[in-house]
Amino acid sequence: MTILSSTAIFITGCGMTERTEGRAESASCSTKFRFGTAEPLGLISRFADQANAAASSGSPTTLRTIADSAAWKGGWDRMVEVPQDITTAELNRRTGATSVCWENVPVKSGAEGPKKGYYLFLDGTQPIQSTSWYGKTDHAIDFEGVDQILADTPLTGTGQGALRPA
Hints:
The N and C termini lie far apart (61 Å). 26% of the residues lie in helices and 24% in strands. The chain has a four-stranded antiparallel beta sheet, sandwiched between helices. The chain has a two-stranded parallel ribbon with strand order 1-3. The protein has a two-stranded antiparallel ribbon with strand order 7-8. By secondary structure, it is of the alpha+beta class. It is globular.
């Protein structure tokens, strides 16, 4: 009986790491996308390194330039930010994707701490790849005031180690 109770608590606890409201019914999903897994465009770490280097230099650039310098393949046209505790409705609004089942959407942990989230790369309304960010680490793109950044949108340094659309 004790083992069964512990197992039930463990399973329930694991289920809380993903937002269940962020998962649409499978019948209404034409696509499933799981944050933080596949790297079809290229290595996430290379993109993060190049974005942080561009933010530190303060020189004008674009997402495409950052991706190219990270040796990423094409096949995406914009990026949206997916912060912790984003609702499915807001994620769908930002992406324009209404028939995607989102899995592993970032949620806030019980403890106070740095914010976390993902940058989501899309081709039209099709999600392609995500890169995670945590606190100030790997959070080189400032989305203040915008929902999306196109591949060729000019980006300039904020003076605080981040890039923002010009």
